[in-house]
Amino acid sequence: MESAEPPAFSLIVVIWSILSIYSVLADSQNVPIFVVNSPPPPFSSLPPPPPFSSLPPPPPFSSLPPPPFSSLPPPPLLHSPPSSPSPPPPPPSISPPPPPLPISPPPRPSQSPLPHFPPHGEHPPPEHQRLPLRCPHHQKYPTKPTALPPPRKHEINKGQKVGLLFIGIATVLQFVVMGYLSYKRRELMKVKDRFQI
Question: Where in the chain are the domains?
Answer without folding.
Answer: 1-28+158-197
